[in-house]
Amino acid sequence: MPLTKKKITRPSKKKPVSKASKATPKRGIKKAVSEKSATKKSATKKTRRSVKKTVTKKVPRKDSVKRVVSAPIKKKKSPSRKTSPKVKPEIVRENRTAKESDPTGLKLAYQAAELMFEKKAEFVTIADLSGLSAVTDYFVICTAGSDIQARAIGDHVEDSLLKIGERAHHKEGFESARWLLLDYIDVIVHVFQKEAREFYDLERLWGDAKWIHLTDK
């Protein structure tokens, strides 16, 4: 067999790289990183200084806020009410009953007053309103000590006058019995309890009328 020459390939020799050349790129990277961090630090310091400056700046009160001083409010004086002078009622004390010569209204008023006395009513009075009121000519007023007595007086007056032909056209107040009213057109009968009579005070409201205070026999 003829001998053939084999080509022997030798590995190429690479040039050795020095340690210094290997380290050079790393140093450059470190320098770039350090420069970036330095710029960041300087930027953060500047921002902190600017923030501190903006915080520490004080706004003067005179320039920013104007204090408004409100003028004192003057209270309006309410106009004084003109009160009508009190009129002293004309009071007559009598101890008599109805007469035939009396007008029909006054005669009926005396009859109602007599019936009130029969049920132990107190402070029986007659008010002569003729010429003063277009509603009626006479009031007959008395005071009762309780609601039971007030109803008893009202029922006795109504029933007794009905027997002689006088019918009440209107009545009210018999449920509460604080103020009973019987309307006979010319005469209006009022039966009050003490507190209600003091509260409504018809003697003061009708001070221009002639008041006749009756006494029991």
Topology:
Elements: H1 19-56, H2 61-64, E1 90-94, H3 104-118, E2 122-128, E3 138-144, H4 147-163, E4 170-172, E5 179-183, E6 187-193, H5 194-200, H6 202-205, E7 210-214
Parallel strand pairs: 1-7, 3-6
Antiparallel strand pairs: 2-3, 2-7, 4-5, 5-6
Residues in helices, as a percent range: 25-40%
Radius of gyration: 58 Å
Average pLDDT, rounded to a whole number, is 75
- Share in β-strands: 15-25%
Q: Helix count?
A: 6
Structural class of the helix and strand makeup?
alpha/beta
Terminal-residue CA separation: 186 Å
Order of helices and strands: HHEHEEHEEEHHE
- Unreliable sequence segments: none
Looking across the biggest beta sheet, what order are the strands in? 1-7-2-3-6-5-4
Number of strands: 7
Major pleated sheet: 7 strands, mixed
